[in-house]
Amino acid sequence: MPITTCIFDAYGTLFDVAAAAREAAGEPGRDALAACWQKLANDWRLKQLQYTWLRAVADAHGDFWDVTQDGLDWAMEANDLDDAELRERLLQLYWELSAYPEVPEMLGTLKAGGYATAILSNGSPKMLQGAVDSAAVGDVLDDILSVESVGIFKPHKSVYDLVGQRFGCAKEEVLFVSSNGWDAAAATGYGFQTVWVNRAGEPVDRLPWTPKNVLSDLTTIPDLAGRL
What we know:
Layout: E1 5-8, H1 19-25, H2 31-34, H3 37-57, H4 64-78, H5 84-94, H6 103-112, E2 116-121, H7 125-135, E3 143-146, H8 157-167, E4 174-178, H9 181-190, E5 193-197, E6 213-215, H10 221-227
Parallel strand pairs: 1-2, 1-4, 2-3, 4-5, 5-6
């Protein structure tokens, strides 16, 4: 069954989650952050993800913006950064994350090829709209799907159900793309065709399923969709 629908995770897949810390580190007077911004960005992202998993299994769902702030607070403390102004600046920049360089052209090629395109993310609707507007990719996306409509974070099955409910497509018609290996793996188990965008060259997660395809960036997604 050919692919008709291409679905993308947002943070780390379309949008560079390290951009906030990297940009802030380059501003005047940010010497403490400049010395540790890469570790801060990694800590922030890891805690953000861990808190979504813990909330999901504990049935304690919350807005992703709250989770994002909690992750940053942990990361700042872990990196000895006690600076309220810096905290606010990093949070501001998270609403303005840049897209990876290949994203606009890749999405445009998919749309020109007749594919439906959408985001499926843990992010709240307002956060996701902010990122889409900042990256100027709204015209090449058919929809922005958020876990807020089901009240639980990925990789719960009800999140992946949102794709079929929105687009009326079979699971086999969906190419799901994520920079999170566990997300792509769970989507494989759900029944999607999957891509793990492994920009950092990390090992495959030890889970019951594995991503069906692994790429280093998003450039060849349209070609892959056409071959599946």
